[in-house]
């Protein structure tokens, strides 16, 4: 183990190499599978590890991600995984970790060029894989699906204009309702949601 630590110290100047080295040396994926309560949970957690490694790879290409301390701090903000079975709650997850699951209502945020598909995937010619992930997310919804994107984002202190994802244009028009296209329908839908929320609140006190 001491020899491993010395090797990690030598790789510390290259955060991405350090991550790969540690994951390989401790056989982390195998440990995850041994600790999981069933195969489905193990698969989700291993997919989460793979997603983290991909995220690190993308981030390490940026100026902020080249410093190990910055990389560790940004990783710490991701928070812990939640494998609870409580369905009466909002669950936040990556598209990868949503595989095999279904929910009555699904919201996919950040459906923008540069995010979905991710810019690195576009540059590497891997848009097909990103399209497959989009399909995974869409098919998690049982009753309603909401896709959203920002027209502008603040990045490194600068306001950037964002374009809707190319995948939105590939959806069947007859199945899509865009908020803002029909103000009257939007207002009606808003009233229905408000009424449903009030009914739910009343039911709690019955």
Keywords:
8 helices, mainly alpha, 4 strands, two-stranded parallel sheet, single chain
Walk me through what this model shows.
With 206 residues, this protein is mainly alpha-helical. The protein is 49% helix and 10% strand. It has helices at 2-11, 15-25, 28-35, 39-60, 68-76, 119-123, 127-138, 183-205; strands at 103-108, 141-147, 152-155, 158-161. The mean pLDDT is 77.
Q: Specify the biggest β-sheet.
A: 2 strands, parallel
Classification by helices and strands: mainly alpha
What is the CA-based Rg, rounded?
Answer: 21 Å
C-alpha geometry: globular
Q: Tell me roughly what share of residues is in helical segments.
A: 40-55%
Overall mean pLDDT = 77
Outline the secondary-structure elements:
Layout: H1 2-11, H2 15-25, H3 28-35, H4 39-60, H5 68-76, E1 103-108, H6 119-123, H7 127-138, E2 141-147, E3 152-155, E4 158-161, H8 183-205
Parallel strand pairs: 1-2
Antiparallel strand pairs: 3-4
Helix pairs in contact: 1-2, 2-4, 3-4
Task: Give a short overview.
The chain is mainly alpha-helical and 206 residues long.
């Amino acid at each position: 183990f001491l020899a491993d630590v010395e090797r990690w110290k030598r790789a510390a100047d290259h955060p991405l190499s350090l991550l790969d080295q540690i994951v390989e040396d401790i056989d982390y994926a195998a440990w995850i599978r041994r600790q999981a309560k069933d195969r489905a949970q193990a698969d989700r957690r291993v997919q989460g590890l793979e997603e983290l490694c991909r995220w690190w790879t993308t981030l390490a290409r940026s100026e902020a991600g080249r410093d190990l301390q910055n990389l560790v701090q940004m990783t710490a903000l991701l928070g812990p995984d939640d494998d609870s079975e409580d369905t009466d709650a909002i669950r936040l997850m990556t598209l990868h970790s949503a595989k095999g699951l279904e929910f009555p209502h699904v919201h996919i945020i950040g459906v923008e060029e540069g995010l979905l598909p991710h810019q690195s995937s576009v540059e590497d010619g891997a848009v097909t894989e990103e399209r497959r992930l989009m399909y995974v997310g869409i098919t998690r919804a049982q009753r309603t699906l909401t896709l959203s994107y920002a027209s502008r984002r603040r990045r490194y202190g600068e306001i950037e204009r964002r374009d809707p994802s190319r995948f939105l244009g590939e959806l069947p028009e007859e199945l899509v309702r865009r908020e803002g296209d029909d103000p009257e329908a939007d207002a009606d839908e808003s009233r229905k949601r408000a009424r449903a929320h009030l009914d739910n609140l009343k039911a709690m006190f019955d």
